Known about the structure:
Residues 163-184 are annotated as: Disordered. InterPro entries: 2OG-Fe_dioxygenase (IPR018724). Pfam families: 2OG-Fe_Oxy_2. GO terms for molecular function: dioxygenase activity. The protein has one helix at residues 5-18; strands at 37-47, 69-78, 86-90, 108-113, 120-124, 129-132, 144-154. The protein is mostly beta strands and 184 residues long. A 4-stranded antiparallel β-sheet has the order 1-7-2-5, covered by helices on one side. Strands 4-3-6 form a 3-stranded antiparallel β-sheet, with no helix packed on it. The chain is 8% helix and 28% strand. It has a domain at 32-154: Jelly Rolls, CATH 2.60.120.
Amino acid sequence: MQRNTVIQALMVFKALVFQNVPITPRDRLDYSSHAWICMMFNARTFTDHSKGIVGEPALEGVHSDGSDHTMTVFLDSTNMTPGSAVTFLHDNKEATGVPVSQVDPALIKARVQHRDFLDTLVFIDHDHKHSVTSVEPRCASSIARRDMLVVFTRRPKMAGHVSGYGDSMARHPQSPMQIPLWQP
């Protein structure tokens, strides 16, 4: 994935969007560092009613991801209804874990839906909680599928941070990726 120029461009885009945007610091992250830790993964969600599987992109309900910045990018979908997989940004007053069907409408701050290739949502994770509705099939006898790229970015951890087991500033030995963006 590191050699993909679209991925590289998305990472630069995200860095430039969030440059100098103030954020509320999270506990045990090193905000004196100029480095960023990035976690990126593909998320495939599918619904197959014939097997009793309902695709929930955010099964945990209303939540925050624990990053400084979150970016979600639409890659593809098949057999998905137009009302599927809607993302809601909530005021932090909304209770964590509440199913999207039970949220307080007054605490919804934004509604976003990824529909087309590379539709992208970027937000400051600590400023809003979020939730996503389920993936529903247009044709109930076929599988509905949605593919997303999810990118979390945060400052490096300090001692005692929950991610201490896996955080590293070392480059991957076979597929290193570093995007130096020196700012004056």
